[in-house]
Specification:
Layout: E1 4-8, E2 12-15, H1 31-43, E3 48-51, H2 55-58, H3 68-74, E4 78-81, H4 94-106, E5 111-114, H5 120-137
Parallel strand pairs: 2-5, 3-4, 3-5
Antiparallel strand pairs: 1-2
Helix pairs in contact: 4-5
């Protein structure tokens, strides 16, 4: 998964968390890496983030002192954090998916959805958003 990918240009994007590297073992992510990530999504005019990280993955951002979610807000992003455990089956519950939908409707667009790698939890959330958007458009 690349850092960032449009699902609906100008409205909905998906991606991986700051500092995610596929071939590396998860480790602490420093402020410079998070700043670099933020700069890239700002170039795409992202205004909001739906973060699906669980507490384990949020622990990689202790060096930010305020935590990743507060850091996003400090940098003027609108944020909704929905803690979704990694490697559960199914990847997201119906309640979690409903929270994603409510967050997407409420947040300023464009919205970026991310978990860790931006694959499984993010993919399920994006699929749910796309299905729900089609239903509401009909």
């Amino acid at each position: 998964m690349q850092l960032f990918q449009w699902v609906h240009k100008g409205k909905l994007a998906r991606g991986s968390r700051p500092g995610y590297e596929r071939k590396k073992r998860p480790s602490q992510v420093g402020k410079p890496e998070v700043k670099k990530w933020l700069k890239k999504i700002r170039k795409k005019k992202i205004r909001s983030v739906i973060c699906l990280l669980d507490q384990y993955h949020l622990g990689f951002y202790r060096g930010l002192q305020v935590g990743l979610i507060s850091y996003y807000r400090k940098k003027r992003l609108a944020v909704e954090h929905i803690s979704v455990r990694n490697r559960q089956h199914p990847p997201m519950s119906e309640q979690e998916l409903e929270l994603v939908w409510r967050a997407y409707r409420r947040l300023p667009k464009p919205v970026l959805v991310h978990c860790s790698a931006g694959k499984i939890r993010t993919g399920v959330a994006i699929s749910h958003l796309q299905r729900t958007l089609r239903k509401t458009a009909a």
